[in-house]
Amino acid sequence: MKEFKRYRVLLQRFSILLLICFYLANAFADIKAVNGRSLRADLERPIKIGITETPPFIIIPDDHPPKGFMMSLLRMMEKHHDAGFDYIEYNSWSELLQAAKKREVDAIFLAQKTADRLEYFEFTRPIITVQNHYIVHDSYIGKVAPNSLNEAQVVASKDSANYTRLVKKGVSVNGAYSAREALLQVANQESEIAIVDAPKASYYMNKLAIDNIKIAGRSPYSYHLAIATRNDMPKLNLFFENAIVLTPESKRDSLKLKWGLVDEPVFSWYIVYYAIVVIASLSLITLYVLRLNRKLKREIDNRIQFETLLAKANANIQTERNKAQYEARTDSLTGANNRRRFHELLSSELSLFSRENRVFSLIMLDIDLFKSINDEYGHDAGDNVLVAVCRSMMNALRPYDLMGRVGGEEFAVILPGIHLKEAESVAERIRENINSLSFKDMDQKNVTASLGVTQVKKEDDKNSLLKRTDEALYQSKENGRNRVTVIE
């Protein structure tokens, strides 16, 4: 008997120690959550909070500021954000949800987490649990069970989690504008059963002096109400998670008591069984896991830091490589291919012509009397002319034609798949485009250009092709400029 008592005392002490360990572990997790994450929403503006009348959580009087359980809690959280909160009022829960989906507000209170809402929101841990009930007229006889809803006229607030659940179950549901309207429909015998959570039902029955309805059973569904934040701003969710942790539970309990709210968890033997199994298992591994947790967290943090630095370094290297490649191939003033890159492209086209007999034509262009423009109006005006001429040429070409700046005021164009006659037309179009240019800093003076055109031949190499095109350009200059000369 003494031995049995000794073991019983040891077991009691062990159970107390285990409960203390669990309590400390939970407290440590909350403290680590706050210390490991910055209590900032990363917003310099006020956080926009969408609210609508959902008593007793949020009550919006006609001539007073909003009040209620959630408003009191929000004002405690508001001190953690320097810019404060902006409260935006909506006429109904439906309007508030639509506004939140359109990103007109940053957060809404209080919301039930559902699959379809995860497309737009992230949810904090539940702040309060409220039980839904079946509300019926006094003349209704008997209790309401879930399997009897298919045969009754059921009403629920549209866009509420109750409405969504019932529709998915195949129940025919009238969508009311609000919980208030749902209760009035039952009171006026327009519907048989309203599904409303107990706090709202109690508030509206008192406010509207409804005395002909009653509770006819408890719905199997509870609301686990949380703060819903827009999912494109993840740090906003972390801000409210940490704000919840920093709001003492004793203050939350006082607010619940003040506004007549009590959490209503649904009892389940499965939970008891699960708790027993968990406690038995954790009693063997808790100390070991707590010991490993710090070491594992350090290793994970070090790895994340290393991978982040490596990713940044790789990104910087790739950016610099791309920048260097671009600068090596591009004329910095006009954005066209530079001389070196153009000659590479010309060699490539000649190789294609040699292998596949893919014809192409070449145009050489020189801006007429460009030196006099620099001398008379300055080099800035000359640069403006070069940029405008380049842009004008690009407008006359196809997306896959190849153009480059090959000299100070000299440009060249490769026209893949274009024969000589078509190339002459393209050159004329370029010349006319340039003639139409005018420049304010040059007293609206027009600019002209001379062009030479030729087509690749079987015996051509790069030097012979360029020499023939230069000869055509030279003839345009000799014959009075501002013209196109073609050499076959």
Describe the protein.
With 488 residues, the chain is of the alpha/beta class. The protein contains 14 helices and 16 strands. The chain has helices spanning 2-36, 69-78, 93-101, 161-168, 179-187, 198-207, 234-246, 249-258, 269-329, 339-356, 370-377, 379-396, 420-435, 462-478, and strands at residues 47-52, 85-90, 107-112, 121-123, 128-137, 154-157, 173-176, 193-197, 213-230, 360-367, 402-405, 410-416, 438-439, 445-446, 449-455, 484-486. The strands form three sheets. Strands 1, 2, 3, 4, 5, 6, 7, 8 and 9 form a nine-stranded mixed beta sheet that branches. It has a five-stranded mixed beta sheet with strand order 11-12-10-15-16, sandwiched between helices. Strands 13-14 form a two-stranded antiparallel sheet. Helix 11 crosses helix 12 (379-396) and helix 12 (379-396) crosses helix 13 (420-435). The model is unreliable at 28-38 and 266-270 (pLDDT under 50).
